[in-house]
Amino acid sequence: MNGITQRASGHKYNKAARYFAIACGLLLICGTAIQAQKKEGSHIHVIVDLVQLNVAVTDNKGNYVTGLRPQDFLVSEDGISQKLATFSEGNERTRRVTEVTGSDGKPTTPANDTPDLPAQVSGETLGSIVSGASVFILFDTSNYMYRGFVFAQDAIADFVRSLEGADKVAFYSYSRNLSREAALTADRATVLRGVRTTVAGDDAALYNCLLLTVKDAAQYTGRKVIVVFSNGPDNASMVPPEDVAELAQSTGIPIYMISTQQARLEPVSTAVFERMTAATGGKAYFAKDWKEERRAFASIRDDLAHLYALSYYPQSNPNLGWRTITVKLAGDRLKGYHIRTRNGYRPQPPRLSTGGSDSASLSLEGPG
Questions:
Q1: Are residue 294 and residue 224 in the same domain, yes or no?
Q2: Cα three-residue angle 305-122-226, rounded to 5 degrees
Q3: With contact defined as beta carbons under 8 Å apart, do 271 and 245 qualify?
Q4: Closest residue by Cα to residue 87 from 102, 72, 100
Q5: Which pLDDT band holds residue 264 (cuts at 50, 70, 90)?
Q6: Is the domain of 200 the same as that of 300?
Q7: Same structural domain for residues 213 and 313?
Q8: Are 213 and 181 in contact (CB under 8 A)?
Q9: Which of 30, 148, 151, 168 is the most exposed place for a label (fewest CB within 10 A)?
């Protein structure tokens, strides 16, 4: 019996010794790796947000103002002046600000024939949408849509065909649940099939489904926009519209909403639609009939074709909550013009990573 006890004790001792030896080995390896990393010049990558803005500029008559350059825009965040990193207008390719302006801050090429004043053109003069955009269309197929269903499908189909310059289009429909009829694709035929196969359904959970659409769009890089066609108020959502608006703002996705007079008769829905679109930099339309629906879609297409795309890396800011964005135009010659863009965002938590290098560096990325 004593022999058995001694063998068991010896076995436990040998097992413990092996674990101790393994632990020492791991510590030695880790220590060696740390020392090697120090010799190589280790550094920390600080990942911060790149804030992107879609900015519409119009005059007192509602005409789009074109020909502006980076130095014409003054951007601040919580009152802190920001330096633009990239810039583009309409269907121009996005460029670094240093490519648009020289070292002296002046344009590298003339903005227009009359540099003292920006050119103004109506919506009909530009035939193509902003290049490189991803457009997500969300169509109300709830029981509110029984009457004008076919006319709405026709208006959406025409809108899809008109998006010649957009990179990709996605088509979703909703009633109580979201249906992803056509995932984001460059194939317009696939999107049109999705439009034509929709059928009228149940109650309307607009805000639930719009939140899911925003989350889908946020997964993609580049410029994104959501266009919603709604025929009535929300009567089935669990998500408040304020949550949807904040996520869209924080991810830099403008929301455009086209609704019918039926929603217009609902004061609460009218106020929510207008507040949500304004906060994200989009617009709300209320159409009396199918002809006005078509005009609303055409207006959205023209609006997208005239947007300025600005981006900046935020200056140091202790505020980790909601940050207010202000965009103004510089100089007396631009007074009286109106600006429409998102009014703020909530920054993502900072993320850190390590790596080897001779000097410290920044890795910059973020939403919107």
A1: yes
A2: 30
A3: no
A4: 100
A5: low
A6: yes
A7: no
A8: no
A9: 30
Task: Look at residue 229 and tell me if it is in a domain.
Answer: yes
* Interacting residues of 342 by C-beta distance below 8 A, sequence separation 6+: 53, 54, 248, 249, 252, 254, 279, 280, 281, 325
Write the CA distances from 126 to 15, 66, 110, integer angstroms: 78, 11, 20
- d(C-alpha 87, C-alpha 99), whole Å: 9
Which position has the token pair 């076995």?
11
Tally of domains within the chain = 2
Model pLDDT for residues 112-162, shown as the tens digit of each residue: 332 333 333 233 322 233 346 799 999 999 887 666 788 889 989 999 998
Q: What is the DSSP string of 96-132?
A: EHHHHB-TTSSBSS-SSS-TTS--EE-GGG--SPPTT
**% of the chain with per-residue pLDDT over 70:** 69
Question: Please, are residues 139 and 156 in contact by the beta-carbon 8 Å criterion?
Answer: yes
Last residue of a domain, one of 305, 327, 342: 305
Which three-class secondary structure state does DSSP give residue 147?
A: coil
Position 337 pLDDT exceeds 90: yes
- Nearest CA among 219, 285, 207, 284 for reference residue 246: 207
Parent domain of 83: 47-89+308-364
Residue located via tokens 């200056």: 315
Listed in sequence order, the residues at least 6 apart from 306 whose beta carbon sits closer than 8 Å to its beta carbon are 56, 64, 66, 89, 90, 123, 126
